Amino acid sequence: MISKKEYASRRRDLMAMMQPNSIAVIAAAPEKIRSNDTHYPYKQSTSFSYLSGFAEPSSVILLIPGRGQGEVVFFCRDKDPLRETWDGYREGPAGVVANFGADDAFPIDDIDDILPGMLEGKDRVYYAIGKDAEFDKQLMVWVNDVREKRGSDANPPGEFIDLDHLVNEMRLIKSAAEIKLMRKAGEISARAHCRAMQLSQAGLFEYNLQAEIEHEFMASGAAGPAYTSIVGGGKNGCVLHYIENRGKLRAGDMVLIDAGCEYQDYAADITRTFPVNGKFSSAQAAIYDIVLAAQAAAIEVIAPGLEYHLANDATVRVITQGLVDLKILNGDVDELIEQGAHRDFYMHNAGHWLGMDVHDVGDYKIDNHWRIYEPGMVVTVEPGIYISPDNTNVDKKWRGIAVRIEDDVLVTKTGNEDLTSGVPKVREEIELLMAS
Ligand code: GLY
Ligand code: MN
Ligand code: MN
Predict the structure, then answer these.
(1) Are 161 and 186 contained in the same domain?
(2) Which of 150, 212, 294, 343 is deepest in the core (most CB within 10 A)?
(3) Are residues 360 and 419 in the same domain?
(4) Domain C-terminal end among 122, 146, 171
């Protein structure tokens, strides 16, 4: 759990980065209709969560450094016995003061009357520019309200600064408490992949393994999948974001599962590829071992002080060399790398930041230079080889084979830590687990 103290210190750190005489306006995510009058399960904006831990919709937080009556102001849904009977508990203004670190709180229904007064006299407003068109409009309505109400004496803010830029940089470096949660998300997700391996057999459907994976997530106290689970049997694994998960699993095929849970707001992201019946064929093994070697080479070069791109470069080199060794690619390895020849078989990058969002926030480059790893960053490492069933340029035995192997790696002071090591990835270990 993230403590109230940590949320407060995040807000303080953010306020310390804001320029003088500023206000930050942070809006909760809107609710979304799924069908007719039913909603998708509500998902709070991750930056809003990061700064508050408050999960209710229709909320706005203001950070006003130097405000005498309190720097942290919440607007939230008022208590309402009738609505709470239908939709569940609400904190209400008193609740967010008692439990979420608000210094001052008001019902959201009063925001149009109160917020313009808080903008008045401020030079600049920090907010997530362009993230939510409705909110962009709303903010301008409030700013214009300052102008209209105060006439010629009005002193509305004239400068608007992207808040996400500051928050994203904070979120990129995980605290000890965040790392603990990410470790837990990794452990649960690893266990789920083990369960799928152990229960896999020909004749099942992809959704059966999805159900086993997600069962383990929920039974372990996770909120659910952090993203739509991908379960692709055989050539379906060649579709990078395959989420139909309706196909039948066939003996002799492999199945690629990319699934990770969300545990207390933090995502895990694991991919394993294994034979439906527990035994790799020699063609599958050959491709598999290249991907595994590529991943190992990438993990080698994830440590403080090293540049972000090195891991990707390492995967490209190992995969290109491996495809040349199997005669799937022909030519000089350096020239093939130069040409990007691997792109027909490995069409994505080696990974991405991981955190509250599965594709987490944070810049990959600063002033056009690759980011240098620092302790507390978490990155996925997920090379793959996907040989299209329609690729007539390669020998038939390779067609339709798809392998991705993905783990979540924390940068530590001395190197890195694999947060998802609880599920095997060496072929012999997978076969052993599947036989048990
Ligand atoms: N699960 C999506 C990804 O691996 O990036
Ligand atoms: Mn993934
Ligand atoms: Mn990923």
Answers:
(1) no
(2) 294
(3) yes
(4) 171
Q: Cα(first)–Cα(last) distance of the chain, in Å?
A: 35
Regarding beta strands 124-127 and 159-162, do their DSSP bridges make them parallel or antiparallel, or are they unpaired? parallel
Q: How sure is the predictor about 149, in pLDDT bands with cuts at 50, 70 and 90?
A: confident
Given this model, what pLDDT does residue 22 score?
98
The response to whether residue 269 sits with its C-beta less than 6 Å from ligand 1 reads yes
Give the C-alpha separation, 56 to 169, whole Å.
24
Task: Give the total residue count for the chain.
Answer: 436
Q: Residue 271 CA: which ligand is closest? A: 2
Ligand 1, atom 4, lies closest to the CA of 269
Same domain, 246 and 293: yes
Report the separation in Å between the CA atom of 252 and the middle of ligand 1, taken as the mean of its atom positions.
25
CA of 229, nearest ligand number: 1
Cα gap 5→24, rounded to integer Å: 20
Has 382 been annotated as catalytic? yes
Together in a domain, 166 and 239:
no
Residues with CB in 5 Å of ion ligand 2: 258, 269, 406
My answer on whether 177 and 94 are in the same domain is no
Query: Who contacts 98 (Cβ-Cβ below 8 Å, separation ≥6)?
Result: none
Residues 78 and 178 in one domain: no
Domain extent, residue 178, equals 173-435
Cα distance between residue 432 and residue 124, in whole Å = 61
- What confidence score (pLDDT) does residue 43 get? 97
Give CA–CA dist 315/298, Å, rounded.
Answer: 6
CATH number, domain containing residue 346: 3.90.230.10
Which entry of 241, 246, 343, 369 is annotated as an active-site residue? 241
**Overall domain count for the chain:** 2
* Claim to verify: residue 137 and residue 224 sit in the same structural domain: no
**To test the ligand 1 pocket, which listed residue (210, 229, 382, 420) has its Cβ within 8 A of the most ligand atoms?**
382
Compute the mean pLDDT over every residue in the chain, rounded to the nearest whole number: 97
Q: Is the CB of 357 under 6 A from ligand 1?
A: no
> 154 is written with which tokens?
């009005």
The CA distance from 92 to 100, in Å, is 11
Residue of 359, 403, 408 best suited for mutating to test ligand 1, as the one with most atoms within 8 Å of CB: 359
As a whole number, mean pLDDT of residues 180-195 equals: 98
| Ligand 2 centroid, distance to 297 Cα (angstroms) | 19
163 and 206 assigned to the same domain: no
Nearest CA to ligand 1 atom 5: 359
DSSP for 61-90 reads EEE-TT-TT-SEEEEEPPP-HHHHHHH---
pLDDT in tens, 159-168: 999 999 999 9
Q: Which pair of structure tokens corresponds to residue 218?
A: 């929920």
